[in-house]
Amino acid sequence: THTLRYDVTACFLEGSEQTRLLVLIYVDDELFLRYNGDRRSAKPWACWIKGHGGDETCAREVENLPKEEERLREMMAEMINQKGHDK
After folding, report:
1. pLDDT at residue 48 in the model
2. Domain assignments of the chain as residue spans, ordered by start
3. How high is the pLDDT of residue 56?
4. What's the confidence (pLDDT) of residue 55?
5. 3-state DSSP: the chain helix, strand, coil percent, rounded to 5?
6. Residues 62/47, Cβ–Cβ less than 8 Å
7. What is 4-86's CATH topology?
8. pLDDT tens per residue across all 87 residues of the chain
9. What is the 3-state secondary structure (H, E, C) of 53-86?
10. What is the distance between the alpha carbons of residues 12 and 37, in angstroms, rounded to a whole number?
């Protein structure tokens, strides 16, 4: 049995329309993949589970991240818009 954990950091710089996004993916508490939303690139850190589905898992996660990034950016924009209405 393995664990898969995502640490997502999304920042919106006030006065800017850009949201910064960083996603770290851990397998069994070991960094596996790092996704930088600014560059829209993913960097495998430890595809050490080669032969155990590591390459396939890495490719699948990289493929899914841009879709998730768009969803997170939309959520962030919605929260910021709501905060503006609350003032």
Report:
1. 59
2. 4-86
3. 73
4. 67
5. 40, 35, 30
6. no
7. 3.10.320
8. 878 888 988 877 777 667 788 888 888 888 888 888 877 777 777 655 555 566 677 777 777 777 777 787 788 778 777 776 665
9. CHHHHHHHHHHHHHHHHHHHHHHHHHHHHHHHHH
10. 12
Residues 6+ apart with CB under 8 A from 33: 23, 24, 25, 42, 43, 44, 45, 58, 61, 62
Q: Which tokens belong to 71? A: 């969803």
Name, in order, each residue with C-beta under 8 angstroms of 57's C-beta and a sequence gap of 6 or more: 27, 32, 49
Integer Cα distance of 70 and 34 in angstroms: 17
Which pLDDT does position 47 carry in this prediction? 59
Which residues have CB under 8 Å from 79's CB, separation 6+? none
Rounded CA-CA distance 29/41 in Å is 22
Amino acid identity, position 72: L
Residue 76: exposure state from Cβ atoms within 10 A (0-12, 13-18, ≥19): middle
